[in-house]
Amino acid sequence: MDIFEKCYKYLTVKDAKETGIYPYFIPLDENEGTEVVFDNRRVIMCGSNNYLGLTTHPKVRAAAIDAIERYGTSCTGSRFLNGNMRLHEELEAELADWVGMEAALVFSTGMQVNLGTISALAGRGEIVILDKEDHASIVDGAFLSSGKIERFRHNDMDHLRRVLESLPEDKGKLLVVDGLFSMEGDIAPLPELVPLCKEYGVRLMVDDAHAMGVLGGGHGTAAHFNLTDGVDLIMSTFSKSFASLGGFIAGESDVVDYIKHNARSLIFSASIPPANAAAALAALEVMREEPERIARVNEIGDMMREEYQKLGFDTGDSVTPVIPIIIGDDSLTFMTWKLLFENGVFVNPVISPAVSPGHQLLRTSYMATHTDEQLEQVLETFKKVGDELGLI
User: Fold this and answer.
1) What is d(CA 284, CA 238) in angstroms, rounded to the nearest whole number?
2) Looking at residues 155-167, what average pLDDT do you find?
3) Which residues touch 6 (CB under 8 Å, ≥6 apart)?
4) Are 256 and 89 in contact (CB under 8 A)?
């Protein structure tokens, strides 16, 4: 039996390319934030996580360039050994202050934060509790741990209580949820989660990859609900509102220090390059100095959600600038994506098994830098395509 045989029989992608509906790995020629260029054609970007539009901010760009000129392009080693810099620790101090925690620890990617943190904390006999819509990095971190995995239905607090009641009291437990769920655009109900975790002796970790820079004045989901003191760990990435690459975990100093010395994804990976650290630090400064960006992206989200609903589209339970357009069928989702793209609007198609059957969707997301004219054009295009395909 050849281990490559399944590769040769994998025809899904080839078939999609032949029919012209393959929507992934699109090679963009330019990416200027709210617009991208593909084959000399400008397309409005409504599928990015660049929520505050900071990838093109002069301060962020200048910080990255200055860091390269001062430090070079790479640290060429793990932070555990030769790759740790004062710049990393300065960034960590600012991040901890921003999210209201004692300490923070910077990793090279957001994926590595969840892989390293969860696997380091959940030992043999301990339990990791997950929302069924948690991000894949959370699930993979739980699988890498030695702990047992329990799952509850998405944002279903009654089901969660039943799960918690079934667990042994004498075992360590960590519950991990997305703050802002990246496909649905809804928010974890922390006002209900926090008391449940306290009642059952469960530590709570919130993945704020998509909430940071968006919710709670930019400080995240816990700040949004004024519940920072009720959350044990806050995680986020730099590849979204921070306009860079990397991620961090924040919490009590002793806990962060333990993760620092036990997270394999940190210890055995090269440290975040200086340019990325400097860009994230500059992005954080912009968030402090220009809070109107955070207000703007939320205003856009509210407006677009309302307009989509007026047109007759199903936006699910979204309450954020992440707005799903639920289609409910794989082929129709791909066809809708294709027509939107051909008409100048870039969105992300999401099909099963990434979402449950019947919940296939187009993930749309917005930036503080989208203009009113661009948004009007997006809505007009959605109406045109929706009418053509009988979606509205």
Assistant:
1) 10
2) 98
3) none
4) no
pLDDT in tens, 130-157: 999 999 999 999 999 999 999 999 999 9
CA dihedral for 92, 95, 101, 104, sign (positive or negative): negative
Considering the domain architecture, whether residues 64 and 49 belong to the same structural domain is answered as: no
* Residues 119, 37 share a domain: no
Cα separation, 82 vs 222, in Å, equals: 35
Q: Which two tokens stand for residue 322?
A: 């992440």
- Return all residues near 342 (Cβ < 8 A) that are at least 6 apart: none
Residues of the chain with pLDDT > 90, as a percent, come to 94
**Three-state secondary structure call for residue 138:** helix
Whether residues 146 and 202 fall in one domain: yes
Considering the entire predicted model, what is its pTM?
A: 0.95
Which of these three, 258, 289, 320, is where a domain ends? 289
Same-domain pairing of 73 and 220: yes
Claim to verify: residue 264 and residue 372 sit in the same structural domain = no
How many domains is the chain built from? 2
In this structure, what CATH number is given to the domain that contains residue 305? 3.90.1150.10
Which range of residues forms the domain containing residue 115?
Answer: 56-289
Gyration radius of the chain's alpha carbons: 21
**Residue found by looking up tokens 């999210």 in the block:** 99
Query: 202 and 248 share a domain?
Result: yes
> Cα(125)–Cα(147) distance, rounded to whole angstroms?
6
- Beta carbons within 8 Å of 185's beta carbon, 6+ residues apart: 315, 316, 317, 318, 319, 320, 321, 322, 323, 324
What is the overall mean pLDDT for the chain? Answer: 96
